[in-house]
Amino acid sequence: MNYTPKIIIALMLTILFVGGPSFADNAAGEAAYAKGNYAVALDQFTKAANAGDINAQYNLGLMYEHGYGVKQSDIKASEWYQKAADNGHPDAPMALQLLYEYF
Asked: Looking at the 3D structure of the chain, how many domains does it have?
């Protein structure tokens, strides 16, 4: 009996359910951010960013750069932008460059 399709399906479901929450947290963070609920956005972005979500890492950089719901910190912004850039976020390198230009 060939178990390969069952193994592939099991792996796909594992990736979906294990990887999914970090993206769901980022989406919840973006919804809260859009409504100006920065405390919820910070919580959701932080969870997702620590789980490796590059969009949440970038979004945390934005929050710290501009001081939305957090104490403004160019250092923390640069740390999050750098993580996002290192992990392949397409906009993070430019955000980091602009931050350093005015740092």
From this structure: 1
Half-sphere exposure of 97 (CA within 13 A, CB side): 6
Instruction: Quote the domain boundaries for residue 76.
Output: 22-102
> Are the C-beta atoms of residues 82 and 96 closer than 8 Å to each other?
yes
Instruction: Give the C-alpha separation, 47 to 26, whole Å.
Output: 8
DSSP letter at 25? H
Contact yes or no for 20/2 (Cβ under 8 A): no
d(CA 50, CA 87): 12
| Measured CA angle at 20 (ends 14, 21), to 5 deg | 115
How far is residue 40's CA from residue 69's CA, in Å, rounded to a whole number? 9
Q: CATH number, domain at 33? A: 1.25.40.10
Per-residue model confidence (pLDDT) at position 82: 98
Per-block average pLDDT, block size 10, for the chain (103 residues)?
Answer: 53 44 79 96 97 97 97 97 97 95 82
